[in-house]
Design a protein that fits this description.
The complex is a heterodimer of chains A (613) and B (656). Chain A has 3 domains: 1-169, no CATH class; 226-259 and 263-317, no CATH class; 388-613, no CATH class. Helix content of chain A is 69%, strand content 3%. Chain A is mainly α. Chain A has helices spanning 4-23, 31-62, 78-90, 124-141, 149-168, 172-193, 198-224, 234-247, 253-256, 264-278, 305-308, 319-334, 345-352, 355-380, 382-387, 389-408, 413-433, 441-476, 487-490, 492-506, 512-527, 529-554, 568-586, 588-608, and strands at residues 103-109, 114-119, 285-287, 296-299. By secondary structure, chain B is mainly α. Among the domains of chain B are: 283-576, no CATH class; 583-655. Chain B has a two-stranded antiparallel sheet with strand order 1-4. Chain B has a two-stranded antiparallel sheet with strand order 2-3. In chain B, α2 (36-56) packs parallel to α4 and α14 runs antiparallel to α15. Chain B is globular. Classes of the chains: A mainly alpha (613), B mainly alpha (656). At the A-B interface, α16, α18, α20, α21 and α22 of A face β2, β3, α5, α6 and α26 of B.
Chain lengths: 613, 656
C-alpha cells in the first residue's frame, strides 16, 4: 500500500521528532543519557538521509546515458516524476504507484485537496543531508548545556523535523505547516538558553519570521484560489468533478470542474504558463502528451490550448498579480536568507543564541530562505522574477558588499560572523537572480548552481565558524575580539583547524567557498559585469575582515590567561568540518555537483525556454 | 608509472604529500624534531621528477593527463544543453614552465635543507616544514597549470603559504601585521587577475580557460575588441604587479621580511615573487599585441627598479636592503617583458626569464647568508650593530660575496649576463618607431639603477663583513655544515649559472625560444644573439663604479658616508623613510576603507533603531486604545448604550 520511498522519506522527517518526544520521558537527572539519546536520533537521521542520497544517485544513474551530461535525464527531474505520480494516481483504474520515484503522496485534508506530498531532487537533497549533518554536530556541540536538558533536546529535534519537512514538502500547505513548526522551537531555544539579551533577540526573530510567514501565507492562499485545471491532466479533473457532483449537485458544469491545488509542481507549471501568456507566447503552450517543435508542454494531458484561453483572464495571469505573488514569496523568504533590508534580526539572534543554535541558524535556517526562492518564488512566478531580476541581483550584490563592510567594523566575534553570513548569502541571491535572456540563459545555470553550492559550502563553514566561537567562548567567556588574543600559543591544534575554516570562508581555491563564488561570479559576469565586479571586489574586504579577526584573536600575545586545548569531542567536530570543507573544494564534482547539477540545470532549462531569444 | 606524464603530476603531488606528512609528524611528539625529513625527501624527489620531465621536453610538451584528445579531468563543471563551463585539472610542461620548475624545486630543496639548521629548536618546527612543502606544491602547480583557473588556484595557494610563513612567529605583532598586509595587498592584484582572465575567457568565446585555447584566438580578439583586449591585459598585469611587488603594490614585500629568513629566500626572493614575471612571460602571445600595454609594463618596471633601489641606498636592516633589491630586480624583469614587441619577443622575454633564473640563485644565496648572519648575531639584523664579520663567519662571507658580486653585475658572473640582456632589450626597443624615446629613457633609468644596485649591495657587504669587529650582545658566531652546504651550492650557482647557460652557447634562449607562447609572439621574427661589446663594457664599468664608491665610503670607517648624509638631508631621510609610501597609502586607501566600514556600521545602527521605532508603533496604538478597557462596568454599559443610540439614530435619521 505505502511505497518504500514514502516510508524512507517520512522516516527522515519524523525520526528526529520521535526521538525528541522520547527525550521527555527520561528522568530529569539522566542528563548524560538524554544527550546520547539525542545524538543517536540525529545519527539515525543522518544515516537515513545518506541512504536517500545513495538511492537518489541510483535513480539518476538508472537513466544515465553516459554521454557528456551523464546524469541528466528529463525523466528524472522532479517535475516529471511528480507529474508521472499524479498521472498514475488519477487514472480511472489507478496504476500501481512507483516505489523508487522518490515522490510520495498520501491524502491529508481532502476537502481542500491538501496532501501529504513529499519528494526529493538535487535541489532539496543537498540541503537535507546538510541539515542532518549540521544537526548531528549541533547535538555534539550541545554537550555543555546543563539546564533543562530534556526540553532542550526535544525542541532541537522538533526543529529538525520542521526543517527537514520543509525541504521535503511538495505541497504548499504542508510546507507552510513545517515552516511554522520550525519557528516555535527556535523561539524557545534562543529565548530560554540564550545570552543576556535573549528575550529581545528571540522576540525579534519571531516577529521578523512571522512577518515573512504572513507574506507566504497570503501568497499560498492566493495561489490556491487560482483555477489551474488546464495544467492538470483531464482525467484528474474529470475524477474530481465526478466526486464534486455527488457532494454538491447544485454547482454548474463549469464550477465543478474548477481545480484548486497546493501541489507545488502543478503551480510551477501554471506559473510558467503565466509567463508565456504574459509574453504573448500563448501559442507555444501545448499539452504534455503532445510535444512539438518550439512548443512548451505545460498543459495537462488531454487539454487543448483553445479551451484554456478563456481562463488566462484570471488574476493569476495578470501582470499585477504576478508581481504581487512574486513579491509576497520573495519577501517571505528574503527575511529568512536574509536579504539586506530585512536582515536586522540576524545579528541579534546570532549573538544571543547558544552556540549549537547559532550553528543551526547559520548552517541551516538561512538556507530555507534560499531554498524557498529557488523552489517556489522563481518557478511559480518566473515572469515577475525575470522582470525584477536586476533589482534582486542588485540587492544580492549590495548585500555582499554591505555585509562585508559592516563585518569589517565589528568587534563582537559572533556579530562579525553574522554579518559575514549576510555577505556570503548575498552570493546566493546574486547567483539566483542572474537571469539573462535568450542565449545568455545558460549562464544563469552557472549562477543557480553556484547559489546552491554556495548554500552548502556556507552551511558547512558558517556552522563550523560559530562552533569555533563557541569553543573560544567556553574558555574566555567573552566574544569581544579585543579581549581575545594569542590563542594560537595555547591552542595550536584548535588554531590550525580554525585557520582552514577561515580560509574556506574566504573562498580560497581548493576549499569549499571557492566553487560557489566562482560560479556565481561567472554567471553574473555574463548577466551584468558591474554586479560581478562588486562581488569580486568584496572578496578583498572579506579577506580583510577575516584576516584581521584572525590576527586579533589567534596571533599576538595572550594577556588573558591560558586556555586549555580543545577536547576530543570538540576536535572531532572541527576536524569533520575541516575535512568536508577541503573535500568539497578539491572534489566538488564527485561529491556534490554531479548529482545536484542535473536538477538545478533542469530547473533553469525549464524556465529559460520560456524566454524568447 | 615513470612516464613523463605521471612524473609531471608527481612534481606538485610529492610536496603536497610532504606537507601532509609534516603535519602527521607534528602530531606525534617524538617525531616533531624529525619533521624536516619528509619535507626534504619530497622536495628532493620532486626536483628529480622535475628534472626528468624537463629533459623530456623536446619537440612536444609534456601533459597530464597524457591523452589530450579525451575529456579533460574536470575539477568542477556545469553543462547546459549548449555550453559547458568547466574548470579542468590539466598540467602542461613546456620550456617556460620547465625552467621555472628547475628554479623552484632545485633552489627550494636546498633552502629546505638550510632550514633544518636555521629553524632548529624553534617552536612550531613541523608547521614550518608543512607550510614550505605546501608552498612548493602550490608554486609548481602555478607554473604547470594549463589554464587560468588552475593557475589561479596555485596563485592563491602560494599567497596563503606566504601568509602562513610571514606570520610564522605568530606571537610577534609586527609579523602578524606584515602577513596580513602581504595577503591583502596581493589580493588587490588578484582581483585584477581574476577579472582579466574572465575578460579573456569571455572574448575567446566563453569556452575554456585553457591558455592554448585563448592564445590561439589572440589575433581575433584584438581585432574584435580593440579596447577591451588591452584592458584585459592590463588587469592580468595588475595581478602580476601585486604578486611580484611592483609599484604601486610593492609595499608588502619589505614588510614580509618579518618571516623566517629561509622563507624570505625561497618565497620572497627566489620563487613566489617571480610568479608575476612567469605569468607575463606565459601571456607574451597576448601582451605583444598591445604596444601601449607593453610600454606601461616597461615604465612600471623601470620606475619600480629605480624607486626601490633609491630606498635601498640608506636602509640599515640587512634583510630590508635585500628585499628592496628584490623589488628593484623584479622591476628589471618587467622592463624586459615590456620590451617584447618593439624587440623580438623571444629575446626580451628570454632576458626577463634568464634574469629571473640567475636572480633566483644569487638572491637565495644572499638571503641565506643574511640568515646565517642573523642566526649568528642572535636574531639581530641591524647593520649598525655588527661589522667585520668576515673572520668569524668565513663561509657565510664567501657566499655573500659571491651573491653580492653577482647581484651587482660584476662582469662574467650570472647577474652580469642577464642584466646585460635586459639592458640590450631596452636599448634595442629604443629604436622602435612607437614609444622609441620612452624606451631610451627607460634604458637610462635602468643603467642608473644598475649603478645604484652595485653601490647598495656592496654597502651592505662592507658594513657587515668589513671594518672593525663588532657584535651585539649574546651573539655566538658559528656555522654548521647543514647550513654551509646549501650556501656553497647556491653560491656556485650564483657565479656560474649565467655563463654556462647563455652568453656563448645560447643554450638558454634556444631552449626557451621554442616555448609555444613565444613562438606565437615572435610571429616569424628571429632573435639575433650577439655580444654587444660596448654595452657589456659600459655596464661592467657602471657596476665597478658602484662597488668602488661603496668601498670608498664603507670599507674603512663610514665617516664620509655620515658626512654625505648630513649634507643631503632631504633625499637621505626620504630614502630612509621609504619615501613615506606606507603613510601615504594609509591615508589614501586604508583610512577611507575603515571610514566606509564605519559608515556602514552607522547605517546598521540606524536600521536597528528604525526597527525598534517601527516596533513601537503597535505599542503606541495599544496605549491609545487601552484606556477604553478600564474594567468599569458602568463605563461599558454607557458606551454600549451610546453606541446603540448612535446606530439607531443613524438608521432612523440618515438611512431611512
Amino acid at each position: 500500500m505505502i511505497e518504500y520511498d514514502l516510508i524512507m522519506m517520512s522516516l527522515v522527517i519524523f525520526v528526529p521528532a520521535a526521538f525528541g518526544l522520547l527525550c521527555l520521558i527520561f528522568p530529569a537527572k539522566f542528563k548524560e543519557a538524554v544527550r546520547w539519546w539525542a545524538l543517536l536520533g540525529t545519527a539515525v537521521t543522518l544515516c537515513l538521509s545518506l541512504c536517500l542520497l545513495v538511492e537518489y544517485y541510483f535513480l539518476l544513474d538508472s537513466r544515465s546515458d553516459r554521454g557528456l551530461r551523464s546524469l541528466h535525464h528529463p525523466k528524472t527531474l522532479l517535475d516529471a516524476r511528480a507529474d508521472e505520480a499524479l498521472r498514475r494516481a488519477s487514472m480511472p483504474a489507478p496504476e500501481p504507484r512507483q516505489a523508487y520515484d522518490w515522490v510520495g503522496t498520501v491524502p491529508w485534508i481532502d476537502r481542500f485537496d491538501i496532501q501529504y506530498c513529499i519528494g526529493i531532487d538535487g535541489i532539496s537533497l543537498p540541503l537535507i543531508v546538510l541539515t542532518s549533518l549540521v544537526m548531528f554536530f549541533a547535538v555534539i556541540a550541545s554537550w555543555k548545556i546543563e539546564t533543562n536538558v530534556r526540553a532542550y533536546f526535544f525542541l532541537l529535534l522538533t526543529l529538525q523535523t520542521g526543517v527537514l519537512g520543509t525541504f521535503f514538502a511538495l505541497d504548499l500547505f504542508l510546507l507552510y505547516v513545517f515552516y511554522e513548526v520550525m519557528l516555535i522551537p527556535m523561539y524557545f531555544l534562543i529565548g530560554v538558553w540564550g545570552g543576556a539579551r535573549r528575550k529581545y533577540a528571540a522576540f525579534k526573530f519571531v516577529i521578523y519570521t512571522l512577518l515573512g510567514s504572513v507574506f507566504l501565507l497570503v501568497a499560498i492562499i492566493g495561489l490556491y484560489f487560482t483555477d489551474v485545471r488546464d495544467f492538470v491532466d483531464k482525467t484528474a479533473v474529470d475524477a474530481r468533478a465526478e466526486e464534486r457532483r455527488k457532494e454538491s449537485p447544485r454547482l454548474t458544469q463549469d464550477e465543478i470542474r474548477e481545480y484548486h491545488t497546493f501541489h507545488i509542481p502543478t503551480l510551477q507549471r501554471a506559473g510558467q504558463g503565466a509567463m508565456l501568456v504574459l509574453t504573448g507566447q500563448q501559442n507555444r503552450l501545448t499539452a504534455r502528451d503532445e510535444p512539438g517543435e518550439g512548443k512548451v508542454p505545460l498543459l495537462g494531458r488531454g487539454v487543448h490550448i483553445e479551451s484554456a484561453r478563456g481562463r488566462f483572464q484570471q488574476a493569476f495571469f495578470q501582470p499585477t498579480y504576478q508581481y504581487l505573488f512574486f513579491v509576497l514569496l520573495f519577501v517571505g523568504f528574503a527575511v529568512k536568507v536574509p536579504v539586506v533590508p530585512f536582515h536586522s534580526w540576524l545579528p541579534d539572534a546570532h549573538v544571543e543564541a547558544p552556540t549549537p543554535v547559532s550553528m543551526i541558524l547559520a548552517g541551516i535556517l538561512l538556507k530555507l530562505g534560499g531554498y524557498g526562492l529557488l523552489r517556489l518564488a522563481y518557478p511559480i512566478c518566473p515572469w515577475a522574477a525575470d522582470q525584477l531580476s536586476l533589482v534582486i541581483a542588485g540587492l544580492g550584490a549590495f548585500g555582499i558588499v554591505y555585509g562585508a563592510f559592516v563585518a569589517l567594523g565589528q568587534t563582537d566575534f559572533k556579530r562579525l560572523l553574522a554579518y559575514s553570513s549576510i555577505s556570503h548569502m548575498g552570493y546566493v541571491i546574486l547567483g539566483l537572480a542572474a537571469w539573462g535572456g535568450g542565449a545568455k540563459s545558460q549562464y544563469w545555470a552557472w549562477g543557480m548552481n553556484g547559489a546552491m553550492y554556495q548554500m552548502v559550502a556556507h552551511g558547512i563553514t558558517a556552522s563550523a565558524m560559530f562552533f569555533v566561537v563557541g569553543v573560544l567562548y567556553d574558555r574566555s567567556h567573552t566574544r569581544e575580539i579585543r579581549q581575545l588574543g594569542g590563542v594560537m600559543t595555547s591552542m595550536p591544534l584548535f588554531a590550525g583547524l580554525s585557520a582552514i575554516l577561515f580560509f574556506a570562508s574566504m573562498g580560497l581555491p581548493g576549499l569549499c567557498g571557492f566553487v560557489g563564488e566562482l560560479f556565481v561570479v561567472l554567471g553574473s559576469w555574463n548577466y551584468h559585469p558591474g554586479l560581478s565586479l562588486a562581488a569580486i571586489g568584496a572578496t578583498v574586504v572579506t579577506a580583510a575582515y577575516l584576516l584581521w579577526t584572525w590576527q586579533r584573536v589567534y596571533l599576538g600575545v595572550n594577556h588573558h590567561g591560558h586556555y586549555t586545548e580543545i577536547t576530543a569531542r570538540e576536535a572531532a567536530v572541527l576536524l569533520t568540518f575541516v575535512v568536508l570543507s577541503i573535500a568539497l573544494g578539491v572534489l566538488p564534482q564527485t561529491l556534490l555537483l554531479s548529482w545536484m547539477e542535473p536538477s538545478v540545470t533542469g530547473l533553469v532549462e525549464s524556465l529559460a525556454r520560456l524566454k524568447p531569444d | 608509472m615513470f612516464e613523463p606524464s605521471n612524473l609531471l603530476l608527481a612534481v606538485p603531488a610529492l610536496p603536497l604529500l610532504g606537507a601532509l606528512l609534516c603535519v602527521a609528524f607534528g602530531s606525534v611528539k617524538e617525531l616533531r624534531k624529525w619533521a624536516h625529513v619528509p619535507a626534504v625527501l619530497c622536495a628532493a624527489l620532486s626536483c628529480a621528477a622535475a628534472l626528468t620531465v624537463v629533459s623530456n621536453i623536446g619537440e612536444a610538451d609534456v601533459h597530464f593527463p597524457q591523452d589530450r584528445t579525451g575529456e579533460p579531468i574536470s575539477w568542477f563543471s556545469v553543462a547546459t544543453a549548449t555550453t559547458k563551463l568547466s574548470a579542468d585539472f590539466g598540467l602542461e610542461a613546456d620550456q617556460l614552465s620547465g625552467i621555472m620548475l628547475i628554479g623552484i624545486t632545485f633552489i627550494g630543496t636546498w633552502i629546505v635543507v638550510f632550514s633544518i639548521g636555521y629553524m632548529h629548536g624553534s617552536p612550531g618546527y613541523p608547521r614550518f616544514f608543512a607550510a614550505v612543502s605546501l608552498f612548493l606544491a602550490s608554486m609548481t602547480l602555478l607554473v604547470l597549470a594549463d589554464n587560468f583557473l588552475l593557475m589561479f588556484a596555485g596563485w592563491e595557494g602560494v599567497g596563503l603559504c606566504s601568509y602562513l610563513l610571514v606570520g610564522y612567529w605568530h606571537d610577534k605583532p609586527s609579523a602578524a601585521a606584515a602577513a596580513r598586509k602581504a595577503f591583502l595587498v596581493t589580493r588587490l592584484g588578484d582581483v585584477g587577475l581574476l577579472l582579466g582572465s574572465f575578460l579573456l575567457w569571455q572574448m575567446a568565446g566563453r569556452n575554456s580557460f585553457n591558455y592554448q585555447f585563448i592564445f590561439e584566438k589572440a589575433a581575433e580578439m584584438v581585432n574584435a575588441h580593440p579596447y577591451l583586449f588591452p584592458a584585459a591585459c592590463l588587469l592580468v598585469f595588475s595581478g602580476a604587479v601585486g604578486k611580484s611587488a611592483q609599484f604601486p603594490l610593492y609595499v608588502w614585500l619589505p614588510d614580509a621580511m618579518e618571516g623566517p629568513t629561509p622563507v624570505s629566500a625561497l618565497i620572497h626572493a627566489a620563487t613566489m615573487v617571480t610568479a608575476g614575471v612567469y605569468l607575463l612571460a606565459r601571456c607574451a602571445a597576448l601582451f605583444t599585441l598591445c604596444p601601449a600595454v607593453q610600454a606601461t609594463v616597461a615604465v612600471i618596471g623601470a620606475f619600480t627598479a629605480i624607486l626601490a633601489a633609491y630606498i635601498a641606498l640608506t636602509q640599515n636592516d640587512l634583510k630590508r636592503v635585500l628585499a628592496y633589491s628584490t623589488v628593484s630586480q623584479l622591476g628589471f624583469m618587467f622592463l624586459a617583458l615590456g620590451c617584447a614587441g618593439p624587440v623580438v619577443p623571444s629575446f626580451a622575454v628570454t632576458a626577463a626569464v634568464f634574469h629571473l633564473f640567475t636572480h633566483a640563485f644569487f638572491k637565495a644565496v644572499l638571503f641565506l647568508s643574511a640568515g646565517s648572519v642573523m642566526h649568528a648575531m642572535h636574531d639581530e639584523i641591524d647593520m649598525r650593530l655588527f661589522s667585520g664579520l668576515r673572520k668569524k663567519l668565513p663561509v657565510t662571507h664567501l657566499a655573500f660575496l659571491c651573491g653580492a658580486a653577482a647581484l651587482a653585475g660584476l662582469p662574467l658572473l650570472s647577474g652580469f649576463w642577464s642584466k646585460d640582456m635586459i639592458l640590450e632589450s631596452a636599448l634595442e626597443a629604443g629604436e622602435s618607431k612607437r614609444f622609441g624615446t620612452l624606451y631610451y629613457l627607460l634604458f637610462g633609468v635602468a643603467i642608473t639603477t644598475a649603478a645604484m644596485t652595485a653601490f647598495y649591495t656592496f654597502r651592505a657587504y662592507f658594513r657587515t663583513f668589513w671594518g672593525p669587529l663588532k657584535m651585539p650582545e649574546g651573539a655566538h658566531p658559528h656555522e654548521t655544515w647543514v647550513m654551509n652546504i646549501p650556501l656553497l651550492v647556491l653560491a656556485i650557482g650564483a657565479l656560474a649559472v649565467g655563463i654556462v647557460a647563455e652568453p656563448f652557447t645560447h643554450w638558454f634562449s634556444h631552449f626557451l625560444g621554442h616555448a609555444k607562447t613565444l613562438v606565437q609572439a615572435d610571429a616569424g621574427r628571429v632573435a639575433e644573439h650577439h655580444l654587444n661589446w660596448p654595452l657589456m663594457i659600459g655596464s661592467g664599468a657602471v657596476a665597478l663604479l658602484g662597488i668602488g664608491v661603496a668601498w670608498a665610503m664603507y670599507a674603512g670607517n663610514s665617516q664620509s658616508a655620515d658626512n654625505l648624509a648630513k649634507n643631503l638631508k632631504t633625499p637621505y631621510y626620504a630614502s630612509l623613510n621609504k619615501l613615506y609610501v606606507d603613510e601615504i597609502y594609509n591615508v589614501l586607501i586604508v583610512q577611507p576603507f575603515l571610514m566606509i566600514a564605519g559608515f556602514c556600521k552607522l547605517c546598521e545602527a540606524i536600521v536597528y533603531d528604525l526597527v525598534r521605532l517601527v516596533a513601537m508603533v503597535p505599542r503606541f496604538l495599544a496605549d491609545l486604545i487601552r484606556p477604553l478597557q478600564n474594567g468599569l462596568v458602568q463605563f461599558y454599559a454607557l458606551s454600549m448604550a451610546m453606541g446603540l443610540a448612535a446606530i439607531v439614530g443613524y438608521l432612523v435619521l440618515v438611512a431611512k
